[in-house]
Amino acid sequence: MNWNKIRRSLGRGYAWLWGHIEPIKSVLLTFLILFSIFLTWQLWSYTPNLQKLDEGEPIVSSINGEKRMLKDVIQPSKVILHHNGNHYGTLSLTLPDNVKGIYERLQSDAFLVPDNNENEVEASPEWFEIIYPTPIPMPVLQDIFIFSGKNPFSADLGTVKKIVIYKKDNDWLVRFEKSNEGYYDFQITETSSFANVVEDYLNYRVELESFHMDGNDFYLPKKQILVKEYRYQIDKFDIDDYLKFLLPGDTVKIDSLENRVTYSDGKSIVHYYKRQDRFDYKSRSSKSNPDDLMSQPTIIKAVDFVNNHKGWTDDFHLYEYTNIESKYERKRNVVDLQFQLSLEGIPVLGHPISSIELEYTNDELYRYKRSLVDLAYEVGTHEVELKSGEQVMQSLEQLQETNVKDIMFGYSIESPEDGITNASITLEPKWFYKVGSTWLKVEDIKEPLKNKGR
Question: Choosing a second label site near 84 at 20 to 30 A (CA), which of 6, 67, 339, 385?
């Protein structure tokens, strides 16, 4: 009896369900669509809590450096457009992907010696200055640019600090200005690649003002400028990975102090500074015979050396090159090279982790210093305001008996120089000036005591 009732109830329920199957399917389908939209929104709006990483210590990772070509590390620090009596520059040497920079265009075109080598640049209504941060030897430039036919400075061992690009009639010409005196003019064979170069730069321009100080001309922004400040997650590399290449023999730990560990293979020595995450390699052998000097330029040798010893872990550009004839018998010739970490073409200055330094004695590597810190990825950015050129010059005028060689804005790493303990660092844009081979912050200039109140 009870069983029959159950069967009749189930039958009625099944009949009702079957009679309403279409509305039920519509309700379920609507629910699934809404749930799918919700999950998609959660996925796209999800942001990881990167602040937790900042509170920890940097990750020790394996070295994954890249090989660089010579033209990648020999880059200008400034590109200035002179247009109808006005001066313009860009905040970054890295332009949008759809705009080819003038330096890139130069590297892709061939140069010819013009028929007339006596031209006045200032007579052109528009011309560019491409300025290197340090003089570049002419033999190195021959490996960066393409010369078609005769190259008049092929045997010149001088250096070039500036390249001028100007227009004469319908032709674009390139002038390599030597660091001391003289220049070499060339004609660009494919002028079509320069058809819109002025318009492209004017679209991303910052108007500049000319200032004169210590016998040098400086072009600085007329107004205050907005520049990006970055925060980067960092990695640290293991010193053992470099020891395998720098000390190929049987490596012995000579001493271990609180901050410094010293390694040697009997021929060379490596000081590893733990708090600074930086090492200093020195070779104990050097050539003393001038006849042993190789013909390959030292800059090319240095780039090859870094390429073959774990490579370049970030973007680095050559910012200092000095060639000194030493009076010491075993140090006939000394060449110092310094490559600066760069972010979108802007150098990181004034911190030990921001440079790679090499010293060559008699054409042989004597010293190699670099950081074990790497910029892993960006975790935040915002814009900050920098002073105008006039405000910068007002600060520099407070200096006494100082020969200012260069002025530019770069990134400052706001962390202690004796070690980075956090997993991220802040790169703050600052104004810098150069004295000798040292970059100093403009904001650190103190007012003279006579200008201060009691």
Answer: 385
* 252: β partners: 264
Contacts of 293 (CB under 8 A, 6+ apart): 287, 333, 362, 363
pLDDT tens column, 156-184: 788 999 999 988 877 888 999 998 888 88
Given phi > 0 = left and psi -120 to 50 = alpha, else beta, which region is 169? left
Instruction: Note the CATH architecture for domain 62-74+221-454.
Output: 2-Layer Sandwich (3.30)
By CB neighbour count within 10 A (0-12 exposed, 13-18 middle, 19+ buried), where does 444 fall?
exposed
Q: Alpha helix (H) ranges present in 184-271? A: 197-203, 239-246
Q: Amino acid identity, residue 437?
A: S
Backbone angles phi, psi at 265, to 5 degrees: -115, 15
SS3 at position 238: coil
- Coil, helix or strand for 32? helix
Q: 148: helix, coil or strand?
A: coil
- With b for 16 or more beta-carbon neighbours within 10 A and e for fewer, the 282-297 pattern comes to bbeebbeeeeeeeeeb
Q: From CA 234, how far away is CA 316, in angstroms rounded?
A: 16
Rounded CA-CA distance 103/174 in Å is 11
Helix axes 21-45, 2-19, angle to 10 degrees: 60
Contact, 204 vs 29, CB < 8 A? Answer: no
What are the two backbone dihedrals, phi and then psi, of residue 95, each rounded to the nearest 5 degrees? -90, 165
Name residue, tokens 């040098």: 216
3-state class of 156 per DSSP?
coil
Domain boundaries defined on the chain: 62-74+221-454, 96-203
Instruction: Name the 3-class secondary structure at 193.
Output: helix
Q: Which residue has the higher pLDDT, 67 or 28?
A: 67
Please give the backbone phi and psi of residue 32, each rounded to the nearest 5 degrees, phi first: -65, -40
Report the SS3 class of residue 84: coil
Query: How, if at all, do strands 278-283 and 364-371 pair?
Result: antiparallel
Query: What letters, b where the CB count within 10 A reaches 16 and e where it falls short, cover 377-400?
Result: eebeeeeeebbbbebbbebbeebe
> 0.85 cut: is pTM over it?
no
Q: How many residues are there in the chain? A: 454
Q: Per the structure block, which two tokens stand in for 222?
A: 């007329």
